[in-house]
Specification:
By secondary structure, the chain is α/β, with parallel strands linked by helices. It has 10 helices and 6 strands, in the order ααβαββαβββαααααα. A hairpin with a 2-residue loop joins β2 and β3. The longest helix has 38 residues. The termini are far apart.
Length: 267
């Protein structure tokens, strides 16, 4: 197996590829939301910019915001389970929804706001790879409003059997793919939109623009990891110091913190 250096889950690649190929994005969104492309009269990416100074910030999120007809849609990729994803999605939804209200406008004019999350970890206990959430009364299942929708597509639950008959699974298989062989398998199905997406992927991965943005993004991830490691080390040292003040045996402190006896003696 030939492991891909970059995948459709790489956030910088994801953003560049679909901003530069809005027709591909339109097809993807129509499949994710199960709506006809012909029914989409307005399709606009509202955050196409990718300033390099922002990409280098570890807090930068490379999601894609769109207006699809009268709906506000946010599409995002998440690879790591950091333990707070539902809360992050709710926060993202509330921010997009509240920012849609123009000064002096009535609340009734707030648009339907949809967050689509393609995630590479298991968030929910169900077997299905797609889950849709809306605010419902818990007994009668009566919908409070249609203006809030959260979609989760869990890639690890996607079945391995893909055919040219199910475009949604084909699109998600592209995001799930980690090897060149998996991409080749999808391309061998001779589905034109899949071939177009893979060709666009090949073009983006060798472009100077992507290489530079990915360098900055990688640097930000490295700096974040270094900062977290330093923070953990400082916490470990503080625990060891407190344990010494409590006159605990050095051997016990070593087992508790993972520090060597020499390191503890130096404290």
């Amino acid at each position: 197996m030939t492991k891909l250096e970059y995948t459709f889950k790489t956030d910088t690649l994801f953003k560049i590829l679909f901003v530069k190929n809005p027709d591909l994005l339109k097809d993807l969104v129509s499949e994710l939301l199960q709506i006809s492309k012909k029914s989409i009269s307005r399709f606009e990416i509202t955050n196409p910019e990718m300033p390099s100074e922002a990409v280098g910030d570890k807090f930068c999120r490379l999601d894609i915001n769109m207006m699809v007809n009268d709906q506000r849609i946010t599409l995002e990729i998440q690879v790591r389970d950091e333990g707070d994803y539902p809360e992050r999605v709710l926060f993202q939804w509330s921010r997009v929804y509240s920012n849609s209200l123009e000064s002096g406008s009535d609340y009734i004019k707030l648009p339907r706001t949809v967050i689509i999350s393609i995630i590479y970890f298991n968030q929910l206990e169900c077997k299905e790879f797609h889950s849709e959430f809306r605010p419902l009364e818990i007994t009668r299942h009566e919908e409070l409003t249609d203006k809030m929708t959260l979609h989760f597509f869990e890639l690890k639950k996607l079945p391995d059997d893909i055919t040219d008959k199910d475009m949604l699974k084909l699109w998600l298989a592209l995001f799930k793919a980690n090897t060149q062989e998996e991409l080749d398998k999808i391309k061998s199905l001779k589905v034109s939109i899949m071939e177009e997406a893979i060709n666009a992927y090949n073009t983006v991965t060798v472009s100077p623009e992507f290489k530079e943005l990915e360098r900055l993004r990688s640097m930000a991830r490295h700096n974040e990891a270094s900062a977290l490691r330093f923070e953990r080390e400082q916490t470990t040292i503080e625990i060891a110091k407190n344990a010494l003040q409590m006159n605990l045996p050095i051997e016990t402190i070593s087992k508790l913190t993972g520090l060597t006896i020499k390191e503890i003696e130096e404290l």
